[in-house]
Amino acid sequence: MNAANNDAQFDKLIVQEVSPRDGLQIEPTWVETVDKIELIDSLSTAGFTRIEAGSFVSPKAIPALRDGDAVFQQIERHPGVIYVALVPNLKGAERALAARADELNLVMSASQTHNRANMRMSCESSLMAFDDIVRYVQGSGVLLNATVATAFGCPFEGRIDEDRVVGIVDTYREMGIEGITLADTTGMANPRHVRRLVARVLERLPAAALTLHFHNTRGLGLANVLAAYEVGARRFDAALGGLGGCPFAPGASGNICTEDLVNMCDEMGIPTGVDLPTLLALSRGLPALLGHDVPGQLAKAGRNCDVHPVPEYVLQI
Amino acid sequence: MNAANNDAQFDKLIVQEVSPRDGLQIEPTWVETVDKIELIDSLSTAGFTRIEAGSFVSPKAIPALRDGDAVFQQIERHPGVIYVALVPNLKGAERALAARADELNLVMSASQTHNRANMRMSCESSLMAFDDIVRYVQGSGVLLNATVATAFGCPFEGRIDEDRVVGIVDTYREMGIEGITLADTTGMANPRHVRRLVARVLERLPAAALTLHFHNTRGLGLANVLAAYEVGARRFDAALGGLGGCPFAPGASGNICTEDLVNMCDEMGIPTGVDLPTLLALSRGLPALLGHDVPGQLAKAGRNCDVHPVPEYVLQI
């Protein structure tokens, strides 16, 4: 199927798998530490180079991820895989380093209201906390990434000024944070907006330093990936099964679905290095693990190459 | 929200609403004739210029649409709306004309196997039936459209040769059929494939004569719309709520969802003429009508401009 599409060579699209963190954090069902470790260890064999494996936030704030220390200490480290931890403050950074996280992901919303709702502090306080973390991590060899959440819109404030997003990117970089994520936290981005903002940000930092984090809340996740890829973005977050909903859109879809994304890339001839059959097997195990259906579509539909047997009556026509 | 995105002028994207036909045809729940008529009459007020309102196939083959005659006779005709009927053969065309359909849509699959499975005849027999219909309709003022089903892939045969699809388009046009639909019947298309095939077909007929019919089975429906739009396609089928699954992908999504499509266009500044609040109200009534949840996402997530109240605790930070 792909061969016929391979008349041009595409750059690799790097998928950062975030199901163990952004996927599980709002799950009402407790996933046992051993099951989280098994999921991450399985994902490590699928060809990912980056896995967001957990977070070191307050267990009261995110009880579903309260075992981040044990998870990071017990997962099998695969060579060539960077295991990322989300940390909200210096205490989280200390825990993450003790548990041998390879990279820390810090999060602040472009929207003041959303940052107060999500992080329970102002953007100014978030930046001060980031500064503490940057100084603490310095010299440890641990990598740093910072996310601009609600970069494409806020569920409270609506439209977010693009200059503000670009300004935050500059602030992060000036603080010494190399990796930047633009997050469409509640799925408000559209391909035109994505093209414009991503092109602007890529004037300021190399593609290797930029991650796009899209949610499929309004069905535009994969269209937004293509729009960003077309203007030069190369790294994208995605969650197995499309896990990770939005508390403001009950029943709507979550993160863009890893196997749906990898299938799109496979069909278009965009290399990812990720093995789709491994993903499908893992994704098909999620309903049993979580006790509910998941939004990803490829696990239900199968790949294009999974052709169906011809019905008996057809042979008689 | 849109104003800021409106720095370039886009051509109108014409949405043909197909929920009354492709949406309802596989519904296991019987939708009363009066409810079908009410749905179509409501859709007629939403700004569509084209509605596929029913079909004139054998009641044994598609029992859910066995009341096509009554539906077409009793719907309110809105000026400027073309009411399309799907017809499989001369008998269906006779019924459709008697019921005052404005346009007939004929369907044949590019895949022989799929045509035998779906239409219970060979492609050659389908073309002979088309010829009868073309001659019957001549001079009546009724418009003709013909669909190439499985144009982007077949669930039995897999890949479909693009030359074959283009050849069928030529055959249709040579037979005197003006409108052409390329249908991705089971959601196997990808944006790259779409760009290539649509560009080829648009070398042979004007954009006003071409409709793209995408299913969202593997999550690529809206990305495929944009790919086709970018190479010049202007008319797209979509179904309210994303109704209309695929029998080969149980649980997977159906047609691309009208309100998700119109939302994408509104956010990007692509005019459609369709009123999104009307669509959302109609879509939110579908679960009660059909007895199950529907795949459309915007009805769950709301529009970007539907901002949420700021939580009490945020005001105290």
**Globular, elongated, flat, extended or rod-shaped: what is the shape of chain A?**
globular
Proportion of helical residues of chain A = 25-40%
Query: Largest interface here, residues on each chain?
Result: A-B, 62 and 62 residues
Average pLDDT level of chain A: 95
InterPro entries (chains A, B): Aldolase_TIM, HMGL, PYR_CT
Organism (chains A, B): Paraburkholderia strydomiana
Protein name (chains A, B): Hydroxymethylglutaryl-CoA lyase
Family (chains A, B): Belongs to the HMG-CoA lyase family.
What does this structure look like?
- 2 copies of one chain form a homodimer.
- The model of chain A is unreliable at 1-6 (pLDDT under 50).
- The first copy, chain A, has a single domain (3-315), classed as TIM Barrel.
- In chain A, helix 8 packs parallel to helix 9 (221-230) and helix 10 packs antiparallel against helix 11 (276-284).
- An 8-stranded parallel barrel of chain A has the order 1-2-3-4-5-6-7-8, surrounded by 7 helices.
- Chain A is an alpha/beta fold and 317 residues long.
- Chain A has helices at 19-23, 33-43, 68-74, 90-98, 112-119, 123-137, 162-174, 191-201, 221-230, 258-268, 276-284, 286-290, 298-301, 312-315; strands spanning 14-17, 50-55, 82-86, 103-109, 143-149, 179-184, 210-214, 235-238.
- Chain A is 38% helix and 14% strand.
- In chain A, strand 7 (210-214), helix 9 and strand 8 (235-238) form a beta-alpha-beta unit.
- Chain A starts with 13 loop residues before the first strand and ends with a helix.
- The first copy, chain A, is globular and about 75 Å long.
- Chains A and B meet through helix 5, helix 8, helix 9, helix 10 and helix 13 of A and helix 5, helix 8, helix 9, helix 10 and helix 13 of B.
- Chains A, B: GO terms for molecular function: lyase activity.
